[in-house]
Amino acid sequence: MITQIRHTGLVVADLEAALRFWRDLLGFTVARQMDESGPHIDAMMGLKDVRLTTSKLTAPDGGMIELLYFHSHPDQPTWIGTPYSTGFTHVALTVSSMDEAYEKLTAAGVCFKAAPQYSPDGAVKVIYCEAPDGVLLELVEMLRP
Question: Which member of 47, 51, 129, 139 lies 3.0 to 4.6 Å from 71 by CB, making a disulfide possible if both were Cys?
Fold first, then answer.
């Protein structure tokens, strides 16, 4: 039935701040950005008078993140994810160099709980950080297959 994971959608409170993080810091490319509204969006979401901007961002491997900014139906986030929260907990991204990613993101003010860690088997270097809107991001550098 399923042929692929198409994208992961993230509702954001500030589209420009989210783009600075996902595009400018992490290196995603904006594949498509569009304003959406109309009966099809209202019906799909079960809401009335929806107005939103979507930005589809592509990773170098083709994986996609979709940022959704609602001009209508604003939300005040009350949930901040934790590694043990029920439901979706984080987005994991593979990086080419953990040291470079850690240095770049730290310089940009991204919050890390600790320095990068090695897995017990030594196969990866890994760290969690906080992306905008309370999204947990796991960065992983593959050290060996």
Answer: 51
Residue 11: how many CB atoms within 10 A of its CB? Answer: 16
Q: What is the pLDDT of residues 48-107, one digit of tens each?
A: 999 999 999 999 999 999 999 999 998 766 666 677 666 778 899 999 999 999 999 999
How far is residue 127's CA from residue 140's CA, in Å, rounded to a whole number?
7
Which residues does residue 66 pair with via DSSP β-bridges, in sequence order? 9, 56
Whole-model pTM over 0.85: yes
Would you identify the CATH topology of the domain 90-142?
A: 2,3-Dihydroxybiphenyl 1,2-Dioxygenase; domain 1 (3.10.180)
The class of domain 8-70 in CATH terms is: alpha beta
Helix (H) or strand (E) holding 17: helix 15-19
